[in-house]
Amino acid sequence: MFGPQGRVVAGITLRATMGRKRAFLFAIPPLVLILVTVALKLAHPERASWPVDILGVFGFSVVLPLTALIIGTSVLGAEIDDGSIVHLLATPVARPLVIVAKYTVACVLTMVFVAIPELLAGLIATGGATRLALGLFVGALAGSVMYNAVFVMISVLTTRAIAVGLLYALIWEGVLAILVARARLLSIG
């Protein structure tokens, strides 16, 4: 897809992003979602309105943006932390290729750490492959792509990517999308 240079950059990005116990950080929010789903399923075995509220609201307004923020900012931050950014910038690799490879890795990791757990939670909550479970999975896939576009862009533009990304998620996605009806149209959520 990217050619040999892109595959090398993607491999370096994947190793750097998943190293140093970062994968545990990525896994915490989806694990909480699955544990809450199991607990609610055991407490309320009959189908009620809680799957939509928990999986839809909590999954898409907390788990997805938080995990995408951590992963999207880590794909560049990990390179800076381990010093491989100097080597990468010294090689004759086109900058757009580097960004596309890092963005692709961020999208795939977010899909693995959010979309698959969202599908599992949906299957647990509804008792099978229902429209809700599949819709949550497809929505999480699409959200992974969109949130990572924003967070990788923020990571490229600023050195305070986590702080700016949190402000974006809390203020724009949280407060303004709820209070201002037209802002909801420009919100990823």
Series of H and E elements:
HHHHHHH
The total count of strands amounts to 0
Continuous helix count: 7
Low-pLDDT residue spans: none
Task: Give me some keywords for this one.
189 residues; mainly alpha
Could you walk me through the main structural features you see in this protein, from its secondary elements to its overall organization?
The chain is mostly helical and 189 residues long. Helix content is 82%, strand content 0%. The longest helix is centred in the middle third of the chain and has 33 residues, at 50-82. It is globular, with a radius of gyration of 18 Å. It starts with a helix and ends in a 10-residue tail after the last helix. 34% of the residues are buried. The model has no long low-confidence stretch (mean pLDDT 80).
Q: What is shown here, in short?
A:
The chain contains seven helices and no strands. The protein has 189 residues and is mostly helical.
Which helices and strands, and how do they pair?
Elements: H1 4-18, H2 22-43, H3 50-82, H4 84-90, H5 95-126, H6 131-157, H7 161-179
